[in-house]
Amino acid sequence: MTSAAGIIQSVIDASATPESLHWFARGLADGTVSDAQAGAFAMAVKLRGLPPEARTALTLGMRDSGDVLRWDLPGPVVDKHSTGGVGDCISLVLAPALAACGVFVPMVSGRGLGHTGGTLDKLEAIPGYTVEQSEAQLRVVTREVGCAIVGATARIAPADRRLYAIRDVTASVESIDLITASILSKKLAAGLDALVLDVKVGSGAFLPGADQARALARSLVDTANDAGCRTSALITDMNAPLGGVAGNALEVAEIMRLLTLATRNDDLWALTVALGGEALALAGVAADSQDGATRIEGALRSGAAAERFGRMVAALGGPVDFLDAWQSHLPAAPVQRDVFAQTPGPVAAIDTRAVGLAVVALGGGRRRDGDMIDPSVGFTGLATIGDVVGAERPLARVHATDDTSAVAAAAALRAAYQIGERAMRGALVHERIA
Ligand code: URA
User: Fold this and answer.
1) What's residue 423's pLDDT?
2) pLDDT, the chain, mean
3) Which domains, ranges and CATH numbers included, belong to the chain?
4) Which is the closest atom of ligand 1 to the Cα of 178?
5) Catalytic status, residue 134
6) From atom 1 of ligand 1, which residue's Cα is the shortest distance away?
7) With contact defined as beta carbons under 8 Å apart, do 406 and 400 qualify?
8) Which of 55, 305, 311, 322 could pair covalently with 299 via S-S, beta carbons 3.0-4.6 A apart?
C-alpha cells in the first residue's frame, strides 16, 4: 500500500517510482499528506536528490494536481520564465513582442521574492491593471490580444503552493530538484508548446554561482523537454542590475520608453531580442534563433509590440490611453535625489542582491507576505560595472517617500558598490543550454 512515509524512504533509497511521486503530489494538494510528511519529503529530496525520471514525475504530478489549460488557438502557445533578479522587466516587453510575431503568450507570473522584483508587482504600478483574472478572462485576452500577463489562480499547481510554503520554513528552498518541479509545474500547467528560460547568474541571482546556474538550467531544460514542452535556457548576467533601473513604476516607465522608441536601453533590448529569438525558434515560427531575433527586433521597431502592450493593459483593467499617456498614469515618488560615491573612480563590482534589498527597504518590495508595496520608489540611472563615477556621474538617483528612507537607501547603495579597480562588464548572455 502506498504511504507518505514509504515514499519518503524511497526518496532516501533512490527507488521512488513515478506512480508514488504522482500520489505524493496529489496528497499535497488534497491534504492526504501532512505538513510534517511534506517537510520530511522536501528535506529528503534536498539531501539525496532525485534521478531525472523521478524529477520529471514529481513535476508532472505537481502540474496535474490542479487545472491544466488546453488551447485551441491559431498559433503556438509560448512563454518565458526568469529565475529572477534586480531590474529584470524583460517579461513586460517580451510578451507583447512575441504576440506581435504570431505566437500566443498566457504568461502566468509571480510576485517579488526576497531581493528580486516580481512582474505582477511591476504591472500593478499601472492604475487599474488587475493581475487576478479568471481562467475565462485569461483565455479571452490571450486569444484577442495575443498575450496576457496575470497571476496564478489557486487552481494552478496547488501541490506547489503547499510544498513551497513548507520548504520556505524547513530550509529546503535551495534544492535544484525542488526548484525545477516548482517552477515547471506552474509553467507547464499553462499548456505551453514552448518555453524559454532566463537563468540568472551573478551577485543578484537567486543561485549566484556559475555551476549552480548551469545545473539549474540543465535540470529545467531536461525536465521540461521530457515533459513534452520544447525548452531551452540562456544563462544571463545578474552581476549588475539589468537596465539600470530598479523599482516597480520606474521599470514600467523604462519599458514604455523602450516600447515607444523614445530611448533604448541596450541591455533590455538585447536580452528581449535574444530570449524572443529562442522562443520563436522553439515554437517553430522562426527558422532558427537568429531569424527569431530579427523578427522580435522588427516587432519592437515597428511599434507592433507597443501596440500589443497597450491593448493588453486596457484589456486587463488599465487605462485605455496608457501607450500615449503613460507618464501621467504612473506614480512618482516625492523625494528624488542623486546618490554620489564617497570616492570617485570606476565601478569594480556591485552587490546586486544588496541593491534589490535597498529597493525592498524603500518600500518597493515585501519583507513578509502581505506587506503593501509602494510602486513609486527605487533607483534610476544605476551605474554599472566599468562606469566611472564621481562628482559628474552619480551612482544612481534614489526615488523615496521621505528624506529618512532616501538617506538610508543612499547609504545602502554606497555600500553595495565597490569602486576601485577598472573592470569590464561581462557578457550579457553567458551560455545557452538546449
Ligand atoms: N521560484 C519558484 O517558483 N519556485 C522555487 O522553488 C524557486 C523560485
Assistant:
1) 85
2) 96
3) 4-63 (1.20.970.10), 78-326 (3.40.1030.10), 335-419 (3.90.1170.30)
4) 6
5) no
6) 183
7) yes
8) 305
